[in-house]
Design goal:
Length: about 35
Amino acid sequence: IEPHTGIPEGLLRLSVGIEDIEDLKADLLDALEN
């Protein structure tokens, strides 16, 4: 946990708007692979 924020280091934040599900999946996979 980061002392100044209280947020765990391994926390993943995902913010989703109105988007095609296939675009979201592709973006998420791309981010995890790189």
